[in-house]
Amino acid sequence: MEKSCQDIEFISRGFSLKGVLHLPKTKLPALVVGSHGLEGSKESAKQKVLAKLLVQNNIAFFRFDHRGCGQSQGDFIKDTSLEKRTIDFITAVKHIVSLEKTRKDIAVFGSSMGGATCINAWDKLLQMNINLCGAVLCSAPAKSRTIENIPTDANEDRPALPLSFFKNNLLFNILDKAKALSNVLIFHGDADEVVPVSNAKNIYTLAKAPKRLIIHKNGDHQMTAKKDQAQFEDETIAWFLKCFSH
After folding, report:
1. Taken in order 83, 90, 114, 188, is the CA torsion positive or negative?
2. Domain locations in the chain?
3. What backbone phi and psi angles, to 5 degrees, belong to 30?
4. Which neighbouring-strand residues pair with 107?
């Protein structure tokens, strides 16, 4: 079987979402599905690095744009919320599994709001006809009220965000759902200027074993330090390989 990279399009509650499925040469590999951050996309640095590294280790990876982001349909301001992203994520998992190009051994990856999306989706994923093997979470908020430096200013991709956007769309507390997590590896910087590291500590405390918490000293929200990125790559691949070995 040839190594391949396939463009994927699927429908989530009427929105056409676009993604890329990375398949290794292995027949019916295990699968990791990723969820990007609030203003990220499937082109985010961590997702592209994981696509390469996972395939090198005979694991498939699916990265996609949530509604209102990247190449997917939707309006970012109108169509962004944790619940909507959770629906997109669960739909993405169902769609890729339905293609029968991978095993039903699934793990998940989420960065920032993508990590919150993974936590929020966990119970529903456990109820699906899959084997949910584990998770890697980076800088994930569990309580939105802890978030600092809310990004309201306009940028090249969108207009300014009103505070009402955050009050109406992004108020959540999913700490209780962290109790269902297991086989979870958590990364967070202790100098995160957006999502305080207390979120990671709380998620770790509540999650079931096996679990691991890696706190990057002086680490920021974007994980910009090269040493932190290198540790993320090494530890994440090792964790997913361990998750799929049981």
Report:
1. positive
2. 4-149+163-243
3. -65, 165
4. 32, 134
Q: How many other C-beta atoms are found inside a 10 Å radius of the C-beta of residue 139?
A: 28
Within 13 Å and on the Cβ side, how many CA atoms surround 2? 3
Main-chain phi, psi angles of 22, to 5 degrees: -105, 120
Please list the residues that pair with 32 across neighbouring strands: 61, 107
Cα four-point dihedral sign 60, 46, 8, 105:
positive
* Chain segment 215-233, per-residue pLDDT in tens: 999 999 999 999 999 999 9
Structure tokens that stand for 130 in this block: 């899959």
Spatial distance between the Cα atoms of 164 and 71, rounded to a whole number of angstroms: 25
Coil, strand, or helix at residue 116?
helix
CB-CB neighbours of 28 under 10 Å: 14
User: Quick one: CA dihedral 201, 144, 12, 50, positive or negative?
Assistant: negative
> Pseudo-torsion of CA 94, 15, 136, 5, nearest 10°?
70
Type and span of the H or E element at 166: helix 163-169
Beta-sheet pairing, 15-23 with 4-12: antiparallel
CB-based contact 176:120 (threshold 8 Å): no
Whether residue 106 contacts residue 31, with contact meaning beta carbons closer than 8 Å, is answered with yes
Q: What's the pLDDT tens digit per position in 133-168?
A: 999 999 999 999 998 787 778 887 777 888 888 888
- DSSP 8-state symbol, 193: S
- 């679990």: which residue's tokens? 211
Instruction: Name the CATH architecture for the domain at 4-149+163-243.
Output: 3-Layer(aba) Sandwich (3.40)
